């Protein structure tokens, strides 16, 4: 099998044939973004890896001829425009954006959070996602054939917050509004938008919640919560990415079995 072929198993993992679609992944240097980028490359996608740390992105790309590494600060409008310009120059178009870059932000209730930390969290999680979506939409409207797909990485916090996570929770509730607005505004141009809300993948971000022997629960106790493989989250993202243009998943929730999400605390 040469580099331009994919096995039946790889195609299945992507949900459908990728047809060498071009996928932009933000936050691709670690965690869920890393897993999605690696799975997408294995499934035959052409992948643009965006993130702040070039060395980490290059390690994920692992020299693949189907990968393009573009160091990007998603909070910088000029850097975001340059990201999509590079993607089009290199691959000719953009079919899918996985809007994934994000931070957990400060731990604290509203009165405990500094304005600087609040603004920083919303700037990365919300404004960064908006800037990337806007740049992607401009490309998707202009390209021929027209259209594309945006997948926003929300969180189960878009449904039910953790204690002392006001900044993060607000940013993820706002992502839900962004997702629905993009889906509505993009409809006439063949642009669909969906959201994946993930709970407790085994990533460094999740590990920080358990640093003191557990994540804080609504009743004030600490609990080491169950996690699931980040590769399963990536497989789910690729299923959404591989849907035909006439189908869309508006919102999908995937969690670790047994985690305290339904009836938290």
Tell me what you see in this structure.
Helices cover 41% and strands 17% of the residues. The protein is of the alpha/beta class. It is globular, with a radius of gyration of 18 Å. The model is unreliable at 1-18 (pLDDT under 50). Helix 2 crosses helix 8 and helix 4 runs parallel beside helix 5. It has a single domain, classed as NAD(P)-binding Rossmann-like Domain (Rossmann fold, 3-Layer(aba) Sandwich), CATH 3.40.50.720. The strands form two sheets. It has a seven-stranded parallel β-sheet with strand order 3-2-1-4-5-6-9, sandwiched between helices.
* C-alpha-based Rg, rounded: 18 Å
Describe the biggest sheet? Answer: 7 strands, parallel
CATH architecture: 3-Layer(aba) Sandwich
Fraction of residues in H or I helices: 40-55%
Helix and strand content put the structural class at alpha/beta
Q: How many beta strands in the DSSP annotation?
A: 9
């Amino acid at each position: 099998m040469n580099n331009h072929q994919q096995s039946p198993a790889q195609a299945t993992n992507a949900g459908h044939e990728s047809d060498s679609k071009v996928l932009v992944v933000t936050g691709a240097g670690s965690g869920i973004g890393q897993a999605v980028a690696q799975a997408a490359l294995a499934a035959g996608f052409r992948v643009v890896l965006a993130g702040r740390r070039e060395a980490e992105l290059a390690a994920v790309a692992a020299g693949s001829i189907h990968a393009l590494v573009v160091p990007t600060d998603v909070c910088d409008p000029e850097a975001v425009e340059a990201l999509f310009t590079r993607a089009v120059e290199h691959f000719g178009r953009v079919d899918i954006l996985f809007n994934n870059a994000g931070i957990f932000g400060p731990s604290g209730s509203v009165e405990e959070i500094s304005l600087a930390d609040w603004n920083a969290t919303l700037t990365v999680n919300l404004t960064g996602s908006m800037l990337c979506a806007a740049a992607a939409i401009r490309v998707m409207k202009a390209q021929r054939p027209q259209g594309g797909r945006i997948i926003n990485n929300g969180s189960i916090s878009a449904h039910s917050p953790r204690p002392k996570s006001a900044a993060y929770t607000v940013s993820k509730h706002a992502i839900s509004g962004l997702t629905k607005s993009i889906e509505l505004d993009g409809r006439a141009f063949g642009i669909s938008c969906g959201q994946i809300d993930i709970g407790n993948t085994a990533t460094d971000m999740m590990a920080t919640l358990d640093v003191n022997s557990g994540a804080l629960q609504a009743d004030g106790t600490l609990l080491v919560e169950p996690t699931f493989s980040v590769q399963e989250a990536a497989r789910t993202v690729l299923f959404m990415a591989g849907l035909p243009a006439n189908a869309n998943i508006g919102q999908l929730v995937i969690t670790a079995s047994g985690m305290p999400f339904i009836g938290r605390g």
